[in-house]
Structure formats: C-alpha cells, structure tokens
Amino acid sequence: MLRTGKRMIKRYSEIVINFREVKHNIFPSKEKLNNNKLIIRLQPEERIELIQMTKIPGPGGYRYKPIALKLDYNDSFKERFPEAYERLIVDVIRGNQTLFMRQDELQAAWTWIESVTSSWKAAGMTNVLYEAGTWGPGDDILNEDESWITKTWRE
User: Residue 47: inside a domain, yes or no?
Assistant: First the structure.
C-alpha cells in the first residue's frame, strides 16, 4: 500500500512488505498466524525491521510469537547527524551534485509519473480528498491484516 499526502497527521515515510501466508505450514496450528513483515522506515528514525512469527522454544506444544529483528540507525550511531536540508546545503557549498537530478533523469521521472496518472485516469480512478491532520482514506481500503481489500493489482 502506498499512502501519501500533505498535511497528514504525522510526517512518516516507511515501506511495509507483508509476506503472503505460507500455503503448507510445517507446524501444526489451528490458529491463523500473522504474516511476516519487512518494514523499511525512511523517516523519522531510519530503520529496517523484519517481523517474523517464531516458535516459542521449550515444552508446551507449538506456541508462536512475533519476533522483530531490527537494524536501527539511531541505536547504532549516537552522535547527532545533520538534517536533510543541512546535508543539502553542505553539498551545495562543496559542489557535490549527487543529490540533484540531471535534466534527463527529471524527464524520465515525469514520463513515468505521467504513465501512472494516465493509467489511473483510463481506469476511472480519481484523487481522494481527506481532512488535514488525519491519516487519509487508507484505512478504508485495508483488511484487518493490512492487505488490500481489492483482489490483486494484477487484475
């Protein structure tokens, strides 16, 4: 799911990949297990997190618990790092252009965006408005397990 917008409740950028349910679970369990997830947080507090259902060791049968494997940038580096705009200004002063797009890159990006928006338009999709200070309409189109309500993007 891509949830994006201006004036949302919080400045937040992350990619969550929900893995599909395992078709043939090797562990005997009548309960539905949570899907494993890979979370890539871009801001705030950059981190990568893999959440997987793990069998709790020891006697007592098959019991499961979600375990998170985390690579947290802030936990690894305690010193203060410059904000994005500070890094950008320093790069400008040093003449470093790696964070700036060339004209051909910009044109390629717009070509891609225009293909997406024209596909949406052809499919009759429109922008969905939402109240400022909310998460927007994304919750209305997600299932309880945070998967799309629609079948698949391929259909």
Answer: yes
Instruction: Select from 137, 126, 128, 142 the least CA-distant residue to 9.
Output: 137
In a domain, 87, yes or no: no
CA 89 to chain centre: 28
What six digits make up the tokens of 12? 């937040």
Task: Kindly report the pTM of this predicted structure.
Answer: 0.61
Sheet with 37-43: list strands edge to edge.
Answer: 13-18, 37-43, 47-55, 64-72
Query: DSSP 3-state assignment of 90?
Result: helix
Q: How many domains does the chain have?
A: 1
Checking if the pLDDT of 149 tops 70, the result is: no
Domain extent for 42: 1-80
Residue 13 · residue 42 · CB < 8 Å? yes
Question: Is the dihedral angle over the CA atoms 108, 112, 113, 118 positive or is it negative?
Answer: positive
